[in-house]
Design brief:
The chain has 82 residues and is an all-alpha fold. Helices cover 74% and strands 0% of the residues. α1 packs across α2.
């Protein structure tokens, strides 16, 4: 897939920090910034999917009461300690 250039405005301190990390990794700053954006986008997409699944579960009355969930978690934790 061909890459397209874009621009982003960063303060001097952030740009310097990116430059230090890129240098330590022996990578260009552009590569580091592209990688950071890819990771951010993936994380945000995951979060949105999880929220949508939770909302759908609540709409379908598939939500678990907090006290029940806590009891299940504690039982699982105790079982793992045995």
């Amino acid at each position: 897939m061909p890459l397209k250039a874009t621009s982003v405005r960063l303060d001097d301190e952030t740009l310097a920090r990116i430059g230090q990390i890129a240098e330590a990794m022996d990578r260009p700053r552009a590569w580091l910034m592209a990688e950071a954006i890819k990771q951010y986008v993936s994380r945000e997409e995951w979060f949105i999917r999880e929220v949508e699944q939770g909302l759908a579960a609540a709409d379908d009355n598939r939500a678990i009461d907090h006290a029940d969930l806590k009891a299940r978690w504690e039982a699982k934790r105790v079982a793992q300690m045995d």
